Amino acid sequence: MTLTEENKEFIKTHLVDRRGTDNEKWDGQRAEFGTDGLLPMWIADMEFSTPQPIKDALIARVNSGVFGYPLVPKGYYDALANWMQTRHNTEVKAEWVRFDVGVVNALYRMVAWLTKPGEPVVIMQPVYYPFMKAIENQGRVVVSADLVQNDSGWHIDFDALEKAFARPDVHVTILCSPHNPVGRIWTATELAQVLALADKYQVLVISDEIHQDFEIGGPRFTSTLSIDNGRYQGNLIVLNAASKTFNLASLRNAHIIIPDEARRADYDAFATAHNAVAGTLLGQVATQAGYEHGGPWLTQLIQVIRHNYGELQAAFAAGAPDVRLSALEGTYLSFVDLGAYMKPDAIQPFVQDQCRIAVDYGAWFSPKTATCIRMNLATDPKLVLEAADRVITALHQR
Predict the structure, then answer these.
(1) Count of CB atoms situated within 10 Å of the CB of 343
(2) Global pTM?
(3) pLDDT band at residue 279, thresholds of 50, 70 and 90?
């Protein structure tokens, strides 16, 4: 995809040099990688400033000068409901919504609430590594029905999933939709099959849908809430947020959406007993403004991400044609397989020491994807091309 003049203006207006601004992606590399000065293509945030209406709403709220105990802002639930309905054809009722300070924090809370120590939780690896941490760090057991990959891309292994769900000690599964890191947007048919299996074996589905707004290629995103006209809502909890959509992670606001009334009451009792934290006022102010006014900004951002993915594909096709990129349907994260060129134990020294790039390594998502790296494309197109050039140049030097 060629950048339009409008896309170029978007980049010019919103691109931010984040070096030296106390952010994890650029300035926090030593803690993760043991060194500084790597080209940061890792943690999932952006070099683009948030939409102006969000900044305006935050400034207006800060200028009030009062930060006492707040209520959820007027209009918040309407903004969320309208966004979900107009963009994803999904109904979300205000009474379904609970808050947390982030989707990862909510994952920990869901595991603590819904399972007991020693119990298994089903996931589908490779998958976002906090899934495993939320399970294992709380004394639960990971059971993976691994995704399978063939020439047509990544797919759910429904036989393996049914086998996992059929275990008498399995009561909870965590679904990643759209899928991080492989970039799939699961079709409505695939999601219906997952939910039907879960319903058959009475396995509660926690669906992490934080990347829902990034439709880069392939099918449109379908929320699990809307599958078969909401047929499975009684056996479903959805986690989402505007934090990825508008780059708001530090404002600490996420949704726990629980359609079933009895399950909501049970969660409320759990949250009260554990002094659960909710979202934050400024996070809610920013989220509401984004849902009300951020659509045009997001459209431009997605076009830049599509461009960056196309540039990455073209660069590797020309310079290192055996590098394998997973098709990017959803998220802004490209899963790149270097296995045709090197063994798993060579990946980190090659990427970090030779290429001087910071990435999320495939081994973090699954032992079976240890030759992969995850690259963040929500950034300056020049940085994407520089990262590709570094990899290609280093491969030619091997």
Answers:
(1) 10
(2) 0.97
(3) confident
